[in-house]
Amino acid sequence: MSYGEYLHQLEEAKKYDHRILGLKQELVSLHEWSPGSWFFLPHGALIYNKLMDFIRNQYRHRGYQEVKF
Fold first, then answer.
1. How far is residue 48 from each of residues 5, 17, 23, 40, 55, measured CA to CA in Å?
2. What distance in Å separates the CA atoms of residue 45 and residue 38, rounded to the nearest whole number?
3. What is the CA radius of gyration of the chain?
4. Confidence band (pLDDT; 50, 70, 90) for 68?
5. Could you state, in order of their start, the residue ranges of all structural domains in the chain?
6. SS3 label, residue 64
7. Listed GO molecular functions (predicted)?
8. What number of other Cβ atoms are within 10 A of residue 27's Cβ?
9. DSSP notation for 14-43
10. CA atoms within 13 A on the CB side of 63
């Protein structure tokens, strides 16, 4: 891969950066008092919960148990 191709690939990757997309699509929010902590907005929380439901169903289907620490 040439340097030019690498730079082009970096520019393309920026279009799909989850940190930017989440803010633009109003799925998450950030607060200056808690840098690095994402707060799920209603639609983001809905997606998160649906994903967690899917993962938990996969755990059960495959014979695993969920643990928390």
1. 35, 17, 15, 8, 11
2. 11
3. 18
4. confident
5. 3-61
6. coil
7. threonine-tRNA ligase activity
8. 19
9. HTT-HHHHHHHTTSEE--TTSTT--EE-HH
10. 0
Helix (DSSP H) and strand (DSSP E) numbers for the chain: 3, 2
Confidence (pTM): 0.72
Q: Tokens for 63?
A: 């014979």
Percent of the chain with pLDDT over 70: 100
Q: How far apart are CA 69 and CA 67, in angstroms?
A: 7
Give the phi and the psi of residue 45 in degrees, each rounded to 5: -65, -40
Bridge partners for 29 per DSSP: 39
